[in-house]
Specification:
With 169 residues, this protein is α+β, with helices and mostly antiparallel strands. It has four helices and nine strands; from the N terminus they run ααββαββββββαβ. Strands 6-5-8-3-2-1-9 form a seven-stranded mixed β-sheet. A hairpin with a 2-residue loop joins strand 1 and strand 2. The N and C termini lie far apart (63 Å).
Length: 169
């Protein structure tokens, strides 16, 4: 095969490889609709975190959410920073051991959130509603927490979620 033929074959192979790599790229999933899960996956298409079901029982009503699990120091440090959308039935859960109080702030978070603090008995201890985007002011739990749930700002009030409600995940 001559130089020109070999070059054409190499270019063709390179283009085929690029097409295969591009089809498997995480970038393709990141362009999915925010909050939508990849078919057959339990990972969030933007964060890559595991997505699990979570329920809040409020009186006789059960509210269901699909939440990303921020269960590593890196995931907890990132949280919902830089996210511009969060669906009405989406959120993020930060699990803790239930022995210490926690505080959060809104650095690099462009959307308002409801920050729901969940006590060791799995009931809501307090809610910081409609937090201020980008604020560096600390938001504190009332006592130790087993988890902290972040929802789209105003969602807790819309659903009538309040302290004392039970949370399961």
């Amino acid at each position: 095969m001559g130089r020109r033929g070999m070059r054409g074959t190499l270019i063709g192979l390179g283009m085929a490889a690029a097409a295969l790599i591009g089809g498997c790229s995480p970038q393709a999933t990141a362009e999915a609709t925010p909050g939508a899960q990849v078919a057959g996956s339990s990972r969030h298409p933007v964060s890559g975190l595991e997505v699990i079901p979570l329920t809040v029982t409020s009186d006789a009503r059960i509210h269901r959410f699909d939440v990303e699990v921020a269960d590593t120091p890196d995931a907890q440090a990132q949280g919902l920073m830089f996210r511009t959308e969060l669906g009405p039935d989406e959120g993020m859960i930060f699990p803790y051991d239930g022995t210490t109080a926690q505080s959060f702030y809104m650095q690099n978070t462009p959307i308002p959130l409801d920050i729901v603090f969940i006590g060791p008995d799995r009931t809501i201890s307090n809610i910081a509603a409609m937090t201020t985007p980008y604020s560096l002011e600390s938001i504190y739990s009332v006592g130790p927490v087993l988890g902290v749930l972040e929802l789209r700002g105003g969602r807790a009030a819309e659903l009538g979620i309040e302290p004392g409600d039970r949370v399961e995940w």
